[in-house]
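Reviewer 2 asked us to include a model.

Predict the structure of this chain.
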Amino acid sequence: MPSSPTGLSKQLSNLLPPYKPGESGRQRRSKRYVELYGKFAAELGKLNAIDAALLSQAVNLMCRAERPGTAANDVVRCLNTSRRILGGLRATRVAVEASSQPTLADILRGAPAV
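Predicted model (structure tokens):
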């Protein structure tokens, strides 16, 4: 006959987290973060690792500014910093699109020089 769990073990089994070891119970990213990141990433196009990290930082600052109870001075600083980061990312995209230099891949394929 299998032994039935004691009252204490039943109570303790309810305290076990529903996630794997090494994981936190809180959400890593908020829905608002995912929404903003997706919109900006779609606008900017393909991102390299550095651009993705910069975009993540800008979106984090925007989310921080939107939190209730954030001081007005902090809101202004967060939004100005995120605006500068996004402006830099957009300027980089424009410069890359406008460059007429062939890439190394184009040269190796034998594409004609512009």
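DSSP finds five helices and no strands in the chain. Residues 44 and 90 are 7 Å apart (CA to CA). We have added this to the supplementary material.
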